[in-house]
């Protein structure tokens, strides 16, 4: 398969994963009465079981066992998988907590920022070069975040935590050479024992939490496995086929859906401060989106050439 076909497949995989993530707030809202940590623990456990079943069906379970053995023998691989597991677990918790505490709009802000975080990570770690327009887009996004902080007198920790945790997770997945399905299974495997221990202690100390779970809630908690694993699986498959910059671009799908849900479905506040901040970020994303076009590249080359003559 040629490079162009691989990239197209990667774009489709990644776009579909972001579409699923965009509608995920609707799922967590149905579990709004449950504690966020409880939901997270179930999410991890059932994701692990779902992925193991998937590996059995796809006959990849032997490869998974081999990688588990490699993790024991190769500390570097084990640390990489563990880092990815911690990052995605933190991202999941922040997102669930924020959605169920009326911060859906701020979560969308975080995922709007994430593409630009991915660009910076690509520049710092992967030595990807930024042109003038990408630098401008990054500065505009920074202004937008600062405006939010100034207007509310509080640091937008939800938005930035989501952006950086998922941005670094995407970078780790980009650097990893493990199959997407096996990698996700390993990540959930690492944190599943902790989740089991947490639920045991939680239900032992607060028996009412266990006794008040309805059949519908139980089904939703179990369904959190495939609801989580499927988009992550497609994201991981797509991440290996396209650039980190393209990953950031396609992510606009998810925060746009989330923002619309937050405003029109969950009736969260969208003040003038939000309009100003989001306008800066949207402008940054428009500039960033077109920064790779031939026309914008031409302007960039002219600016660089002019500056080089002036030196």
UniProtKB/TrEMBL annotation:
It comes from the Bacteria. InterPro entries: EamA_dom, EmrE-like, RarD. It is found in: Cell membrane. Residues 9-149, 158-289 form the EamA domain. It is a multi-pass membrane protein. The chain crosses the membrane at residues 12-28, 40-57, 77-97, 109-126, 133-150, 156-172, 184-203, 215-235, 247-267, 273-290. Keywords: Cell membrane, Membrane, Transmembrane, Transmembrane helix, Transport. One of its GO terms (cellular component) is plasma membrane. Its main location: membrane. Belongs to the EamA transporter family. This is Chloramphenicol-sensitive protein RarD.
């Amino acid at each position: 398969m040629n490079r162009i076909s691989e990239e197209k497949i990667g774009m489709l995989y990644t776009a579909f994963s972001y579409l699923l993530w965009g509608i995920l707030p609707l799922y967590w809202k149905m579990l709004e009465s449950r504690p966020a940590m409880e939901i997270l623990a179930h999410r991890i456990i059932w994701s692990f079981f779902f992925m193991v079943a998937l590996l059995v069906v796809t006959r990849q379970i032997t490869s998974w066992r081999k990688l588990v053995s490699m993790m024991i023998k190769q500390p570097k691989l084990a640390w990489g998988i563990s880092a990815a597991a911690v990052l995605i677990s933190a991202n999941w918790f922040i997102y669930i907590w924020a959605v169920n505490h009326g911060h859906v709009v701020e979560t969308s802000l975080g995922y709007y920022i994430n593409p630009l975080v991915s660009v910076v990570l690509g520049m710092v770690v992967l030595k990807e070069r930024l042109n003038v327009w990408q630098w401008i887009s990054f500065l505009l996004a920074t202004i937008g975040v600062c405006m939010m902080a100034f207007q509310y007198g509080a640091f937008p920790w939800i938005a930035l935590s989501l952006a950086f945790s998922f941005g670094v997770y995407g970078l780790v997945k980009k650097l990893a050479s493990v199959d997407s399905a096996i990698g996700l299974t390993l990540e959930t495997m690492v944190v599943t024992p902790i989740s089991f221990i947490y639920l045991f202690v939680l239900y032992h100390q607060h028996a009412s939490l266990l006794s008040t779970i309805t059949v519908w809630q139980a089904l939703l908690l179990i369904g959190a496995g495939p609801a989580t694993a499927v988009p992550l699986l497609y994201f991981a498959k797509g991440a290996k086929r396209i650039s980190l910059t393209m990953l950031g671009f396609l992510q606009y799908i998810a925060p746009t859906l989330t923002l619309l849900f937050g405003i029109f479905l969950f009736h969260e506040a969208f003040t003038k401060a939000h309009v100003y901040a989001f306008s800066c970020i949207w402008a940054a994303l428009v500039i960033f989106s077109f920064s790779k076009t031939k026309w914008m590249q031409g302007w960039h080359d002219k600016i660089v050439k002019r500056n080089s003559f002036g030196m």
